[in-house]
């Protein structure tokens, strides 16, 4: 079987398992393209992306590129790649870069395409209440996530699963999917077929997407909390003060008391917030300007019998 020269493009932690899997294969990862270092933390220290850090550890040359422009294209072409593999890079691949590798580019996307094309497929799937999550490896084309699919894998959503946990799981299983497709491309057995069904779209989340609407049913409030955790983060306001909701889940019982939507009460060592048809239990929170803490400690610190979340 021919050994392929692979250029890998990715940025966040979710792309790391695929890079590691390819680096351990019989093929050669000749270069890694990733977004430039970004300021992180309160001190805004410039920090390499998780993919850049992994590539450096593996001894693979790194190309920092905020976008895949002419300069980046020339640097990638100089590596003489046979195949491009992209996982959550955070930028678009256009011509002539699309056609630079002999076998083109393949993309690992965290949905069962054509469902949830776009930047936040896992998050949007959870918010929508989907029963399944998926991962697809497809041929990159100019249209957004629209290329023919080589392989797809689905699994049920786990009870209480957040977007962060789901992405970690799908990144690991998706790495195997990528490796299988690369092997098939190398030996000439790869077959890709057109996407079937109606496309749905998953635009990038904003901070406003994390606001919890207590007038909705519990299952919807919980789905939004899980879909925006850990990024951009679930939040609400309690008596006008912003409160991040770090850990939460549907309350097992809300009788007594029966809470109005947005009503916050301490009950049997729990902190509950009323929804349209029940309550969500707050387990860990972070008030504005303070560190994360157990919700019960936050509630005791308020020193009130009830409050209102909006």
What's a concise summary of this model?
This protein is an alpha+beta fold and 310 residues long. It has helices at 16-23, 50-58, 70-77, 121-127, 163-187, 218-227, 295-302, and strands at 5-10, 28-34, 38-40, 45-47, 62-64, 83-87, 105-109, 132-139, 149-156, 234-238, 241-250, 263-267, 270-274, 279-287, 293-294, 306-308. Helix content is 24%, strand content 28%.
What coarse outline follows from CA principal-axis ratios? elongated
Distance between the termini: 60 Å
Rg (CA only) = 22 Å
Q: Which structural class do you get from the secondary structure elements?
A: alpha+beta
Fraction of residues in β-strands = 25-35%
What's the SSE pattern? EHEEEHEHEEHEEHHEEEEEEHE
> What can be said about the biggest beta sheet?
7 strands, mixed
Main-sheet strand order equals: 5-2-1-6-7-8-9
User: Which parts are unreliable, with pLDDT below 50 for 5 consecutive residues or more?
Assistant: none
Total of helices: 7
What is the strand tally? Answer: 16
Describe this entry's structure for a reader.
- The protein has 310 residues and is an alpha+beta fold.
- The protein has 7 helices and 16 strands.
- The strands form 3 sheets. The protein has a 7-stranded mixed β-sheet with strand order 5-2-1-6-7-8-9, sandwiched between helices.
- It is elongated and about 70 Å long.
- The N and C termini lie far apart (60 Å).
- The mean pLDDT is 95.
